[in-house]
Design a protein that fits this description.
The chain has 235 residues and is of the alpha/beta class. It is built from seven helices and 15 strands.
Length: 235
């Protein structure tokens, strides 16, 4: 799966250089370019972004101020012409810090750090899923333990998901549906709509483009119908 990148920089030339570097890396894909922090916030709220190339000095709102305002930021590589921000930037958990003009060699070194971290996290999540039959969710200043077998379906809305389960009230969690899907057993859970993941073991009936549970109905969209049918045929 490609790493989705966002460029946030008020200098057109800097944007162009980063875009050219991104095009040279097969595992990266550019989903947008923003000239200021406000534009970037809108893109981040509406799209899945894995890696953000973020300029520090921008009008109205700096890159560090943007980073501080985000509850769940993507991986960040800072880009700037000013070396004095180096020490401060690492307090924000950024992956790397690039000085302009950015050479391809230095760009690749920074990107490799992100890709290595992503690979390690995916492996850890995969191992945890294989070894455990439960998952933890952080919500309401508490840690909630849910067994996979008890989850009926999960509804997503922006940066939040709602967990519907047997014998519990719906739980609202700060997470994205696509990221949560990576933490669930692939044979047991299937995304059937841009806003829904279902537990295949809990389905009562399928009627056309609707999935019936005991007290709930979940729609199936055309985008995910084929994958859902493959899950039905290969449980």
């Amino acid at each position: 799966m490609k790493t989705k990148c966002l460029i946030v920089d008020d200098e057109p030339i800097a944007q162009q250089i980063l875009e050219q570097h991104i095009e040279k890396v097969e595992t990266l894909t550019l989903i947008g370019k923003c000239s200021n922090a406000i534009e970037a916030m809108n893109v981040l709220h509406q799209n899945e972004v894995d890696l953000m190339f973020l300029d520090i000095k921008m009008p109205s709102m700096t890159g560090l101020e943007l980073l501080k305002s985000l509850q769940k930021p993507p991986k960040v590589i800072l880009t700037t012409a000013f070396s004095e921000f180096g020490v401060e930037s690492y307090e924000y958990g950024v992956t790397d810090y690039l000085l302009k003009p950015i050479s391809l060699e230095r760009f690749l070194k920074a990107v490799n750090k992100v890709l290595m971290l992503k690979g390690e996290n995916e492996q850890l999540q995969k191992e945890a899923t294989q070894e455990n039959d439960f998952i933890f969710f952080k919500a309401d200043k508490k840690i909630h333990k849910y067994f996979f077998k008890d989850i009926l379906f999960i509804e997503g809305s922006g940066n939040y998901v709602k967990i519907l389960s047997k014998g519990k009230r719906p739980l609202l969690v700060l997470d994205k549906l696509s990221e949560l899907l990576d933490k669930l057993p692939t044979k047991q859970f299937c995304r059937v709509h841009k806003s829904y993941i279902v537990n295949m073991q809990k389905i009562t009936q399928v009627q056309g483009n609707r999935i019936l549970f005991k007290d709930n109905i979940v729609p199936i969209s055309a985008t995910y119908k084929q994958d859902f049918e493959n899950h039905l045929m290969n449980p």
